[in-house]
Amino acid sequence: MTQFIEWSVIIFSSLIIYARGQIPVSVTFEGRKSGNTVIFNCSFGLVPQATSIQFLVNSIPSTNIRLYQGKCYLTHTGGPCNANQCQCSHDGKRYYWTYDEPEDKFTATCKAKINRYCTAGVSIQFTEFDLTPHVNKVTFCSYTNDAMHKVKGKTSTILSSIVVLIIIMIG
After folding, report:
1. CB-based contacts of 4, cutoff 8 Å, min separation 6
2. What is the enclosing helix (H) or strand (E) of 119?
3. How far apart are CA 65 and CA 86, in angstroms?
4. Interval 63-87: pLDDT, tens
5. Half-sphere exposure (CA, 13 Å, Cβ side) for 103?
6. How far apart are CA 112 and CA 69, in angstroms?
7. Using only C-alpha atoms, what is the Rg of the chain?
8. Most buried of the four, 75, 82, 104, 139, by CB within 10 Å?
9. Would you place residue 151 in the very low, low, confident or very high pLDDT band (cuts 50, 70, 90)?
10. Per-residue DSSP letter, 49
C-alpha cells in the first residue's frame, strides 16, 4: 500500500506540472573530438515535433536532421544520411552528426522544437583540453496563454480523474 501511495504522489505531482502548463523535457548532448572530426550525439526525452533537430556551431546553424518514414535525412540537401554523416534512432529521440574541420575552441548546440510553443536545447563547449564534453539538462517548456487556453479543459479533466482515483484507492 505504501508503494502505491508513493507512485500516486509521483503521478499527482507530475500532473500538477502539466496542469500549470509546463512540460519537463530532458536533453542530453555530447561530443567526441578526434583529430579533424567531432561526432555529436543529441537525445531528447520527448520526440521533437516533425522529428527534426538542428545543430549549431558557434551560434550558426550548421545542419538540420529529420527522421521521415523510418529514414534519416539532412534537410538542407533533402538527401538521406549516410552512416559517416548523420544518423537517427527509429523512435525519433536520438540524433548523431559528424562535424568536420572543427576549430580548437568552439561551442556546439543541439536544439529541437518540442511542440508549437516550446524549443528545447543545450550547448557544450569544446576546448583544446576537453575533447569529450557532455551535458544533461531538463528544460521546462511553458505554454503561452493561448496554449493554456487550448489544453486547459483536457488537463483539468485528467487531473480531476486522477485525484478521484487516488482518493478512492487510498480511502
Report:
1. 169
2. strand 118-126
3. 8
4. 999 999 999 999 888 899 998 999 9
5. 7
6. 19
7. 20
8. 139
9. very low
10. G
**88's grid cell:** 537517427
C-alpha cell at 34: 578526434
Distance CA 18, CA 99 (A): 37
Q: What are phi and psi of 131, to 5 degrees?
A: -95, -5
Retrieve residue 116's grid coordinates.
Answer: 508549437
CA distance 151 to 162: 17
pLDDT value of position 94: 96
Boundaries of every domain in the chain: 1-21+143-171, 24-140
Specify whether domain 24-140 bears CATH 3.30.1330.40: no
Cell of 21: 502548463
Statement: residue 144 has pLDDT above 70: no
Grid cell 535525412 is found at: 73
Q: Are strands 22-34 and 37-44 parallel, antiparallel or unpaired?
A: antiparallel
Directed axis angle between helix 2-19 and helix 145-170, to 10°? Answer: 160
Phi/psi at 28 (5° precision): -120, 130
Q: Which residue has the cell 556546439?
A: 108
**Residues 84-130: pLDDT tens digits?**
999 999 999 999 999 998 888 999 999 999 888 788 889 999 888 88
